[in-house]
Amino acid sequence: MRTNSLAAVWLLGGLLTGVAAAPVAEEAGAFSPAFIASQQKAVAPAICLLNFTAEVESQRTGETQKRSTRALGLIVSPDGLVMTHGHMQSDKSTPSHIRVIVGEGDEDKEYDGVILKKPDDINVCFVRIQGEAGERFPFVTFASEENLVLGERILLFGIMGETLDFARGALTRGISAVIEKPRMTYCIDDAIPFGYVGAPVIDARSRIVGVVGYDLTPAEGGELYVRSGHPLVYQAPLFAKYIQNPPTADALETDHPIAWIGVFSQPLTDDLAEYWGLPKNGGVVISTVVEGSPAEAAGIQRGDVITSFDGTPMRAKKNSEIVGFTKLVRETGVGREIPVKLLRQGQPLDLSIVLTERPVSAKDAEEFVEDTFGLTVRALTTDVRILLNLPDDTEGVIVRRVKSGSWAHLAGMRPGVIILRFGEYPVTTIAEFEDAVNKAREARPAEVPVFCRAGARTGFFRLQPRWD
Length: 468
Prior knowledge:
By secondary structure, this protein is mainly β. It has helices spanning 33-43, 240-244, 270-276, 294-298, 322-332, 382-387, 407-410, 430-443, and strands spanning 9-12, 15-18, 47-57, 64-75, 81-85, 93-102, 109-115, 124-129, 153-159, 168-179, 185-188, 200-202, 208-213, 232-235, 259-260, 263-267, 284-289, 305-309, 312-313, 337-344, 347-354, 356-357, 367-370, 375-379, 397-402, 418-422, 425-426, 448-454, 457-463. A hairpin with a 6-residue loop joins strand 3 and strand 4 (64-75).
């Protein structure tokens, strides 16, 4: 027997009480029923069920649909901080009406939950339980070091399906691969049921070493460490700082600005190197330079191959290795002069570049929900202009959602259309769009012509509201 200093803690008789010593698994390759039972007793009270409404945007049409869904939550602080899987919130999915169910069966209790700002560097989300003042919740604590090894067995606790009344269940899995770059990654050897995504991971020494996670795909907004489609162990050091200093609606934006270089890039594969007559050492090939970016100001050109950035060699040969360059740029800092070594038409060239703060992206752009005509619009951002191949001087607001059955929907408007003029008034910003809509409400015309851009074409949508 070994004292478990990292066991979960829960409320008992109104007092915050530590868990009694838990047995240690006798062998790393197997867990006894007694060991599993003791760990479930310690951990299960901190596992909660999240019910919420997800607004999911179709990648094909851009339309948004609402659906009720659920997820496993893990309470990680006594004041009700909950950690869950990162797919709850992404570029294509927005959660709302969150309800947190703590406990099981007749002893469960339901609370409102508030989603916090999602971290940029790990695919997890945080929810704050809206409990009574001073209320304390069961929670788990994590080991400060994971030290998992290839072949090691791990124990997972999750939530069973609705037909089993969302009972807490246990699974054992193994570490099938340990990948060291671009960050330490522990791959799990088999698929994980949905109710175990976000589940606590326990090793043979009774330590809670992390949670089960899945990385976002690039289509979902994944940029860093993308190993999507395979269950991973997100080890505790990756998210410990967010438990210690929980994110809020404003946090993470004010910590430090994210640096931006303003290029699109790809790896220098061996095939490309052979075609261009370059050494097969890898590198970062510049495919696009954004106008007005730090890269353009520094003289970087399309076709250049970056071989060193701020003294760090660039050796990317696969798409997955480009994330190392992306991460390095984001974390380098704003305003400092950075040395860059590159190859231009096979010849070495040294440049220096001063990174600036990343422009507002589409997911952070200002948004306005208009109820009269049924439109939700967003401000145009640099990434959207690049994605849609729009000139840099394109102004207007882009339609994000069109309410089904609304006047805008009946007129044929759709997501992705850029509004340039609403009625008699030009639109270049969200404020101008809102003002134009208010003037249309006051005037109550029989028809409101909306001049828009869709791709390379422009034209009118004719909204015919029935004011009465």
